[in-house]
Amino acid sequence: MRHRSGCVDDVEVLVVGAGQAGLAAAYHLQRRGLSDFVVLDANPAAGGAWQHRWPSLTLGRTHRIHDLPAFPLRDVDPDEPASTVVGRYYAAYEERFSLPVRRPVRVRSVTSPDGPDGPLLVATDHGDWRTRRLVSATGTWDRPWWPAYPGRGLFRGRQLHTHDFTSVEDFRGQHVVVVGGGTSAVQFLLELEGVATTTWVTRRPPVFADRPFDEEWGREVERRVTDRLRRGLPPDSVVASTGLATTPAVRAAQAKGVLDAREMFTSITEDGVRFADGTQVRADAILWATGFRAALDHLAPLHLREPGGGIVVDGTTVVRDPRIQLVGYGPSASTLGATRAGRTAALTALAGLEASRQPAA
Ligand SMILES: Cc1cc2nc3c(=O)[nH]c(=O)nc-3n(C[C@H](O)[C@H](O)[C@H](O)COP(=O)(O)OP(=O)(O)OC[C@H]3O[C@@H](n4cnc5c(N)ncnc54)[C@H](O)[C@@H]3O)c2cc1C
Description:
alpha/beta; 25% helix
């Protein structure tokens, strides 16, 4: 049972984050009979990062939301915003399995005051916890990646990141420079058509995949990302591993020239962007669809990163500190991968607890 000593709560396993990965892990911990665990989530409501996605990202426009274990997502309206559908689904899931989720609680840092064999100390904005195993399932939404370009501070128009996008209506009648070669950029360009004029810029020419996004494709992507992590490198951008989906809407937009990308600009001016050849494009807004990085600041005190910047995992176990399971990271950064990784993390954490209870030979 959970107990308090001093001002610290003690648990056997602590899960950080109640998105797809954290909920899947929590389900499997509970299913295997563990009651002494808690899930801490920084968001005000159920839904993980999905609750923050823009209203026009309907369920039908997502790649696909994979089912959480033992409770499929049923009877959905593809025209309903994914934020609403997933928020409702995760809330129902937490209730159905009585998962011990506490929110809003933000984990600030994880330290190891008693050395590698002792418990971990988890400091949050609502008190501290001690735990023997930690499942870190914090996703990427809290770490928007916004690359630096000269002149960024000069621009008099609006600049925003995918993280803060709400509606194309904000850009009606404007000229928008859309930055980035990923799925979000493509979705923005499709939505902006007829509302605003656009210039699309990407660092590398966009790659549209002309193969189906089937299971074999998924396995290939996982192999590629896993190989990077094994080499101590951080995970690539999603699109570097997947390519862009060539949907009928994409094909139609390509035919109309809506998806003609040009090279990245070299600087930002007061009223637009400038390219290497000296040409300029005037813009009312710059939309940075430049992706996200893993939100792992809370683990920084444990020095888990390799010289290459990545964290090496074996399955979901952090090689530098096997008390920690990392889920929703690298190959498991999709709803399917996160669901599978949540299970692996729960079983590995439980096996680790069991092994630590065996008397030394
Ligand atoms: C725009 C966009 C569209 C996407 N579309 C798809 C799609 O169609 N299909 C698909 O499979 N995947 C999609 N993805 C990837 C998607 O993010 C993952 O599939 C999955 O939802 C991530 O789940 P997660 O549990 O890892 O993270 P999240 O859903 O991000 O959940 C992490 C949770 O951890 C919490 N948290 C973070 N830091 C802390 C902290 N320090 N302390 C406490 N709590 C913390 C957050 O508040 C959040 O609730 C998309 C991603 C983006 C950005």
